[in-house]
Amino acid sequence: MTLTTWGDHPEPLAVDSAPLPEYGTGSLADLLPTLAAGMGVPGGTVAISELAPADRACVFLVDGLGWEQLKAHPDEAPFLTSLLASSRGGTGRPITAGYPSTTATSLASVGTGLPPGAHGLPGYTARNPETGELMNQLRWQPWTDPHAWQPYPTVFQLADAAGVHTAQVSSPAFEHTPLTKVALSGGTFLGRLTGEDRMDLAAERLAAGDRSLVYTYYSELDGSGHRFGVDSDAWRGQLMCVDRLVQRLAEQLPPRTALYVTADHGMIDIPFDEQHRIDFDEDWELRAGVALLGGEGRARHVYAVPGAAGDVLACWREVLGEQFWVASRDEAIEAGWFGPHIDERVYGRIGDVLAAARDDVLIIASEREPRESAMVGNHGSLTPVEQLVPLLEIRT
Q: What pLDDT, on a 0 to 100 scale, did the predictor assign at position 388?
């Protein structure tokens, strides 16, 4: 696996020393196209070769359930732990999220079956080249036309058009969001407040068709990780809840079903001190020549004022290059961080300079991003703790 090849890095870190997501063979973007191909959906592609076809498939995405965090907590998640050997078609290996390893990007990769360079959600926040403003792609602020931002059909839409019984079972709060529209629409959206109700309804929807594709989602584990950290009792309590939910769903699966439990990213706790949290708002060197700071603490998009991109790259590489992979836009694209190709409309959304954390550090912005800067648990970069996610499998 590309991502597990670690080793010594020069200083500053070379761009091509960053471990790459397994685009095309074992990333989140490859999951639904593989499942759709197994159901005979036109346009489906068997990208994750280890997965056998199934007439009915359910994807249960647990926000923030990283591979390394799951392996470290067998007591809190006995049922999930019993499934580790089933991951990735019985190989016992994880898959990768994609870059950046963050929710908006990953959900778009799951739903469209495309890497970030194609679907065009390249981070938590990214510049809109049409307006010059930073756009929050999770909250969709400021408003941007969803279809123009992400024009490709979702795999759910393709499956629904091919006669597959298709449904999304999630919180009612997500039904009408632009992110759901561009990433997860197609078939029927069914909102349920509790995790237990979602599991029961997902099983019911699977049984409703001879060919069925059902997606369900749980966000509370991620919320606890951000607020309290993955080394907290609150996070462990949520993991115990997830474990019970997966078992509840597994016990109700109809015949000829494959259930896949996966996640959008892992998470890492970062200490609250100046050594581990570098404050952009208080660092004149890092601010020099920067027009906009996008992305998030472990995966920054840096947009330079006109003519300053080279100076910003040199400064960021000098200041941060022993702890971050610092790359120009073209270097990151050539290295394959966002996938094998970049759509023209996406190119300007990517920072002039990118900084992806290797070490246990963040680039916070205490004044402009107070809420995000206060988070205990973080994610976004290319490290295994953030990139690797399970693909646990149960078949009936």
A: 98
